[in-house]
């Protein structure tokens, strides 16, 4: 009987997670089922319970449930606890473990796939939602000089600064009042592109920066175009992060670390 996994979200139809996990499993000759489950907005707890009861061994949690999943799982890793958000759950008999692999996924994409050294870098993050909560600890572990979090709703960015300042130098600002100073790395962690909305930003901050959008495919294009036009040294989308965070989830479930580069290449060819 193949082991049973799923990704839970709403919407979920475009999720690449089944293809990624099947590609990882094929590297080890593992047979597994990995389905997409569209979860009604008020039914996360019920769907999780049912999936586990039916023999499910693990799930990924995606938009919009990462924060809502947090209080539902009693046992969590330290990085999930700090993030206050869960994107991976392992079911083991009656026990569950909640984790958050987004941060390590981004860090591996930046430092291993794109060979960036974040030490002493000045980082600007646009957006202060669930994804930003998930990546801050990992980014701060790379010892950047500073992280500035710019958000449309200032108070959300300020709350993140209060929660993460023990790990490194963070500050908050409004999205339309970004300090006129150079940034080495600008990360778009807003959901504007995914929602097809305009991300209104000033021009000069891009000059000589590296830009990275957590989104990928057409959702990343407006930000990457803005980066290119503003004079960014280089710009990347979040496809590598997607595959790297999935690799870490795969490791949690199977204790095997898959090769990610061929899977990133495979997905890139399909975009
Ligand atoms: P959330 O809904 O939790 O947060 C969205 C953030 O975007 C908020 O800070 C919100 O600001 C801001 N925002 C939304 N629309 C606009 C707009 N029109 N202009 C300016 N700011 C806006 O989403 P997540 O944090 O979970 O996800 C963010 C992005 O990261 C998505 O594109 C998601 O697909 C991507 N992602 C990619 C991953 C990967 O593996 N590659 C993993 C996780 C996420 P406000 O607070 O003011 O509402």
Question: Mind sketching the topology for me?
Answer:
Blueprint: E1 3-9, H1 17-28, E2 32-38, H2 44-53, E3 58-61, H3 66-69, H4 78-83, E4 88-92, E5 95-99, H5 102-113, E6 122-126, H6 130-141, E7 146-151, H7 154-164, E8 170-174, E9 185-188, E10 210-213, H8 221-230, E11 234-236, H9 239-254, H10 261-270
Parallel strand pairs: 1-2, 1-3, 6-7, 6-9, 7-8, 9-10, 10-11
Antiparallel strand pairs: 3-4, 4-5
This protein binds NADPH dihydro-nicotinamide-adenine-dinucleotide phosphate (NDP).
CATH superfamily of the largest domain: NAD(P)-binding Rossmann-like Domain
Strand content: 15-25%
Give helix % range. Answer: 25-40%
CATH class of the largest domain: Alpha Beta
Structural class designation: alpha/beta
Radius of gyration (Å): 18 Å
Mean pLDDT: 95
Summary tags:
globular; Rossmann fold; alpha/beta; five-stranded mixed beta sheet; 38% helix; 271 residues; single chain; 10 helices; binds NADPH dihydro-nicotinamide-adenine-dinucleotide phosphate
Notes on the protein architecture:
With 271 residues, the chain is an alpha/beta fold. The protein folds into two domains: 3-100 and 242-270, Rossmann fold (3-Layer(aba) Sandwich); 103-237, Rossmann fold, CATH 3.40.50.720. Helices cover 38% and strands 20% of the residues. It has ten helices and eleven strands. A six-stranded parallel beta sheet has the order 8-7-6-9-10-11, sandwiched between helices. Strand 10 (210-213), helix 8 (221-230) and strand 11 form a beta-alpha-beta unit. Helix 1 (17-28) packs across helix 9 (239-254), helix 5 packs across helix 6 and helix 5 packs across helix 9. The longest helix has 16 residues, at 239-254. The mean pLDDT is 95.
């Amino acid at each position: 009987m193949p082991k049973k996994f799923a990704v839970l979200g709403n919407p979920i139809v475009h999720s690449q997670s089944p293809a990624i996990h099947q590609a990882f499993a094929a590297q080890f000759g593992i047979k597994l089922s990995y389905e997409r489950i569209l979860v009604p907005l008020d039914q996360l707890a019920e769907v999780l319970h049912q999936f586990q009861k039916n023999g499910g061994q693990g799930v990924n949690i995606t938009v919009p449930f990462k924060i809502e999943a947090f209080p539902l799982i009693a046992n969590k890793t330290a990085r999930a606890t700090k993030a206050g958000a869960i994107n991976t759950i392992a079911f083991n008999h009656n026990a569950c473990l909640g984790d958050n692999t987004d941060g390590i996924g981004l860090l591996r994409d930046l430092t291993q796939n794109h060979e960036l050294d974040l030490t002493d870098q000045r980082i600007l993050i646009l957006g202060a939602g669930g994804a930003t909560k998930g990546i801050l600890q990992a980014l701060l572990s790379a010892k950047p000089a500073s992280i500035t979090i710019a958000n449309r709703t200032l108070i959300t960015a300020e709350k993140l600064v209060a929660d993460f300042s023990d790990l490194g130098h963070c500050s908050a600002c409004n999205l339309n009042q970004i300090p006129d100073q150079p940034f080495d790395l600008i990360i778009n962690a807003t959901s504007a592109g995914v929602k097809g909305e305009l991300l209104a930003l000033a021009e000069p901050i891009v000059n000589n920066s590296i830009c990275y959008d957590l989104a990928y495919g057409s959702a990343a294009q407006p930000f990457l175009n803005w980066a290119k036009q503003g004079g960014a040294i280089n710009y990347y989308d979040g496809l590598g992060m997607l595959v790297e965070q999935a690799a870490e989830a795969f490791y949690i479930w199977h204790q095997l670390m898959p090769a990610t580069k061929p899977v990133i290449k495979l997905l890139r060819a399909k975009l």
